[in-house]
Amino acid sequence: MITADAREWPAPIRIVGLGSDQGDDALGWRIVTAVQRKLQNPAVHSACVATGAALLELLDGQGSLVVVDAVCSGGVPGSWHRYQWPLESLERMRHWSTHGLGLVEVLPLAQTLGLLPPRVEVWGVEIDPTVLHDQAAAAAAERLACTLVNVFGFEGCASHV
Amino acid sequence: MASTQRTIQVQALARVEGEGAMTIRLKDDVVEDVELRIYEPPRFYEAFLRGRDAAETPDITARICGICPVAYQMSAVHAIEQIYEIQITPTQRHLRRLLYCGEWIESHVLHAFFLHAPDFLGYPGALEMARAKPELAELVKTALRVKKAGNSIVRAVGGREVHPINVRVGGFYRLPRHDELHALLPELTWSRSAVRGLLDWSTTLTYPDFEVDYQFVALQHPDEYPMNGGRIVSSRGLNIDVCAFPDHFAEMQVPHSNALQARLKSDGSSYFVGPLARWNLNHTYAPELVRQAAAAVGLTPPVRNPYRSLGVRLLEVLLAFDEAVRLIEAYEPQGPPTIPHQPRAGVGHAATEAPRGLLYHRYETDNQGLLRTAVIVPPTSQNQAQIEADLRQVAASLLPLSEEEATLKAEAIIRNYDPCISCATHFLKMKVERR
Predict the structure, then answer these.
(1) A84: which of A50, A63, B158, B405 is 20 to 30 A away, CA to CA?
(2) Which of these CATH numbers, 3.40.50.1450, 3.10.20.880, 3.40.50.720, 3.40.50.300, describes A13-152?
(3) pTM, whole model, 2 decimals?
(4) A100 touches chain B (CB under 8 A)
(5) Assembly ipTM
(6) Number of cross-chain residue pairs from A and B with Cβ atoms under 8 Å apart
(7) Closest Cα to residue B77, out of B94, B55, B95, B44?
(8) Tens of pLDDT along B102-117?
(9) What is the mean pLDDT of residues B276-301?
C-alpha cells in the first residue's frame, strides 16, 4: 500500500548510480548496488550507469529520480550533498564532463525533451580525487545506502530525510 | 607597416572526449604554428600490461575508453588469438561483428547528434539545440531511441552496455540465446527506418566548403564492410597485412602533447582514419540499401569534406543496423562459447575498425602466456597530425573573427574527427596567438 509519505515520491521511483566501477568514482554504483540487495519495494527500480547519456536513456518523464553520485566540489570528503531539481547552481557547472554530456547537461536536456520525472534529486558523497578508497567517503556511502533503503526500501516508504 | 600578431587559444575543448587544448599562432595573416595539445596525463596502459596474463588484455584494454570498449576488446582478442593460433567459429565471428555494430551505433549517434550537429546549427550544445525548436527536440529524442537500440545489442551480446564483459580470448564466456537476440529485432528494424529519416535531415545542414585530398587509411576485407579484420589499405595505394603496420607507420613524440602522433614512415605524411576513410575505401562493400541511401543524400565517394563525416557516420549507423538485423535473423547459437587453447610464446598483431578509425594492437607473450610487450595505437593518435594540418588550413580565416567565433570554428574542425583524447593519452583547450 502506498502511504501519504510515499506519494511525495511519485512511482515509479528510479534510483540510479552514476559513475564507474573504478576507484572512489565507484561510490555511486556501490551505494545503489547495496540498496538493490535490500530493496523490497516493487515501485523502486535501480540501475547503475556510466554516462549522462545512459542516464537520459532511462528517463520517460514519469515518477521520481534519485541520482546517486560521487561528488568533487572541494568539500570535506565523506560529507553528503542533496540537491533537488531544479537547481540553478547545476546549470552554472556545465561543460565539465566527458563529451559535455554529464549530469549537469543531461537533467536540463531531459526537461527540454519532456523526459524528466516530476521529482528529481541528486544525492552525492564528497570524495577526495587524490585519495583512493577514502575511508570517510566509504563510511558515508554506507550510511547513505542505509538511508536510501530506509526511505525507499519498503512500500509506504517514509520521507523523513 | 606594423605587423599583426595574434594567438588564438582554446584552454579546454568542448564536446570532445577527454582533456586537451589548442593553440594557433598567427603573424600578418600567416600561420606560424598550430598545436593540438593533449595534456591529459599519459595512462601507461602498455607499460602496466607487461607481466599480466594475456587473457586479461580484452578486459584491461577495454578500460581505455568508455565510448569504444568493444574496439579495444576486439583488437586485443584477435591479437592474442593469433599468438595462440585460435580459429574462432562462424557463430563467434558473427557475434563479434554484431557487438561491433552496437558500438558503432552508440558512438556515432552520440557524436552526430549531441556533439557534432550543434556546430552546423550555431548552438553551443545539444541542450540549446533541443531548446531552440520543437522539431529539433524531436530529432534529439529520435536519436536517443536509436542510440538505445545500439546499447541493447551491446548489452545482449556483451553482457552489459558499458565495458562489456562477455568477450574472452577464444570466443565468449556465454553465447546469447536465440530468443535474447530475436527480441531485439522489432526495435532494430524501427531504428533502421528511423536512421534513413535522420540521414535525410542531415542534408538540410549547411556544410562549410572545405575539401582536402586526404590520405585515407582503413581496413579492407574481401567480403564485407570492415570491422573486425582485413588488410590495411590507403587511398594512395598502400595494401599491407596488419602485421606490417609497424613497418609503415611510426608513432612520434611531439613536445606539446602527451599523446604520440602517428605518421607514415615513407614520407612522414599525416593520414586520416575513421568513417570518412572507411567509406571512401570500402563503399562498394556496403549493402545496397546503404549505397542507395548514400546516393540519395550526396555521399557517393569520393567524400573529401571532413564536415560531411556527420552524414557518413549516419550511413555507417544505417549499415550497422542492417548488418545487425541480418546477423540476428540468421543467428543460431552453434558450437562452443570458447575454443580451448593453451598459452604459448609469440607475437600477435590485430587491427579492427573502432568508431573513430583503425585501432592497432601488438602483443608479445612468453610461453606461460604472460605479456612481454604491448603496443596500442588508437585512432585519435593517428588522426592528430591530420587535425593539426586541417587547423593550419583554416587558421588564416580565423584572424578577422572574434575569440569566441574563432574558437567555435577551430573546435568544429576538431570535432569532425570525433577525437577521443582519453584513448590518445594513452587531448582539448584552444589558444590562437596573433603576433
Answers:
(1) A50
(2) 3.40.50.1450
(3) 0.90
(4) yes
(5) 0.79
(6) 65
(7) B55
(8) 999 999 999 999 889 9
(9) 98
